[in-house]
Design a protein that fits this description.
The structure is a single chain. By secondary structure, this protein is an alpha/beta fold. Helices cover about 50% and strands about 15% of the residues. It has a single domain, classed as P-loop containing nucleotide triphosphate hydrolases (Rossmann fold), CATH 3.40.50. It contains eight helices and five strands; from the N terminus they run βαβααβααβααβα. The chain has a five-stranded parallel beta sheet with strand order 2-3-1-4-5, sandwiched between helices. The protein is globular.
Length: about 210
């Protein structure tokens, strides 16, 4: 069966680790998975990732940032995500459109309706079946990051607090689609919780609620 899962959260919350662990655990059970990330996942996306993440002199206009992320997302959706879903694979994406709502909408202060319209175009109306939010106090999460920091990690704490509040508002608005986890838990505990939540959405006759040994 096809299923689309995205992992969201502030910098340093452990999204990439949990996305990788979920993909590995599902593969052990024989599921065909597609693990990807944003921005990136395609040649164009990786070029834009370097542009967007690199610390630089001078700011990128919030509107330009919004459109650059959308360009990367449009290419990833067309070239990677939609084909994988058509092949009945489970797509696991480290960030997707909700990142733009949280970062460029709540974080940068762009009009949320504008962000929604841009997202709708970039995703062709596709949204994840399940969004896993790794939630953590931004100051604690940023302390986990190694130097040198990228452009977003250089932002002030107030920016990251706005992003976190945005994520929590999104999760509160759609509790059936969002799964909020305390990212301060050990990675193995979080991985088990994610696996159990995903298992409830897949074929229970073939998915145990315990991680593969």
């Amino acid at each position: 069966m096809s299923f689309f899962i995205s992992f969201e959260g502030c910098e340093g919350c452990g999204k990439s680790t949990q996305a990788k662990l979920l993909a590995e655990n599902l593969q052990l059970l024989g599921y065909s998975t597609c693990l990807t990330h944003e921005p990136g996942g395609t040649p164009l996306g990786e070029e834009l990732r370097r542009c967007l993440k690199r610390a630089r002199e001078g700011a990128i206009a919030p509107e330009a940032e919004l459109l650059l992320f959308a360009a990367a997302r449009a290419q990833l959706t067309l070239d990677v995500i939609l084909p994988a879903l058509e092949e009945d694979r489970i797509v696991i994406c480290d960030r997707y459109s909700d990142s733009t709502v949280a970062y460029q909408g709540y974080g940068r202060g762009l009009d949320l309706d504008t962000v929604s319209t841009v997202n709708l175009t970039a995703t062709r109306g596709l949204s994840p079946d399940l969004v896993v939010l790794l939630d953590m106090d931004p100051s604690r999460a940023l302390a986990r990051k190694r130097l040198p920091r990228d452009r977003f990690e250089h932002e002030g704490l107030e920016f990251h607090e706005r992003v976190r509040k945005g994520y929590l508002k999104l999760a509160q608005a759609e509790p059936a689609r969002w799964f909020v986890l305390d990212a301060t838990n050990p990675p193995s505990i979080s991985a088990q919780s994610v696996y159990e939540r995903v298992a409830t959405s897949l074929d229970k006759s073939t998915v145990s609620h315990d991680l593969p040994a």
